[in-house]
Amino acid sequence: MTEMWERFSYYGTRAFLALYMVAALSKGGLGWSNEKFGLVYGLYTFSVYAFGVPGGWIADRFLGARRAVVIGGIGIIIGNAFLALGGEPLLYAGLFLVALGTGFLKPNTTTMVGSLYAPKDIRRDRAYSIYYMGINIGAFLAPLLIGVLAELINFRIGFLVASILMVLGLGQYLLQQSQLGEAGKLVQRQVTATEPAPPKTPFTREEWLRIGSIGVFFVFSAIFWASFEQAGSSLNLFADQMTTKMLFGFPIPASILQSAQPLFVVMLAPVMSIIWDRLGTRQPSSPIKFALGLLGGSLAFWVVAYAASLTTGGKVSVNWLILVYLLQTLGELCLSPVGLSLMTKLAPQRITGLMMGVFFFSIATGNLLAGLIGGSFEANAASLVSLFSWVAGITLAAAVVLVLLNPFVKKLMGDVK
Prior knowledge:
This protein has helices spanning about 1-20, 35-50, 50-65, 65-85, 90-115, 125-150, 155-175, 205-230, 235-240, 260-280, 285-310, 320-345, 350-375, 380-415; strands at about 245, 250. The chain is mostly helical and about 425 residues long. The chain has one domain (about 1-175, about 205-415): Growth Hormone, Chain: A.
């Protein structure tokens, strides 16, 4: 529920942020060029996940996950309030505070999910699928409320509603902490004046190998998210400028299409959870699941590249983008919940929060690339076919490489499946 509210806030503003940055001043936007939008948008979405590294480390060492989540929620509330006030200086301050707050909140709520289960508990992957579905309920509803209010009334109202909803989320979290047991509490060993501090235990060879496998997953995760997060940049601009923006015969704001991916997650996450459960020990290895995720991302961009080629005859149906988002979601469900669960299994226990932050840093890297690619958006068929085909080809090549690396990565992972 806490992550649902945080994602409600984040995806609500992401649904219209690109449109706000490039919209004319007369329409309440910033009037930025695509290049400036791509850079600022990319740096913002990069920071949202990159701050998960210090957020996880500070929680591990000083705060504990529970208190870090509270600090993160406060940062998100204040940041969105700044954005609602308007003006370029407050825009940068607001984006910074939202990113910093998310860096404290997101990796630590994710880590606490893993802390609810014993290290060998086979229910952990299923738990993360349920958790992931909860996140996407917020991500689905957010564009329908915040995105629509922002596009049809005023962009600043969207930011204000996002701030208010995070207040609700933080309040719900504080009221329901008792359900978490000991998860997320900072454990400190008291040392007397006559008792020496316990020595720091070095990582074992097995732990170092597992950390190495996290490095491998980092690279391929970043490639996947560089394609997936085009939803908020190039695909959002494609929806706004190159589609009819008609659904079931009714005109719609472009931001509503940002609800398609999370809706598919809510619908398909339970199905994927059941599939992994039924397969049991016969399910594919984690590297193969990652490769399947990359394949889904690649197919999505081959589809949108074809749709872009049709724009020589005018705007195309939004149904093309709905198909794109379906394929991306299938890829996401093979990669993202598995990646979250893997971090809690592969990371040495004393740095679980930090390693979760590292995984989010891979998402940050992908977001930065997605923003920069979005800055190359040009509303003409030839340019878009080239852009989307390039993304599709890189993602497909990554999937093939990871399949070839599967035996090597499994050795690094040791007994972790």
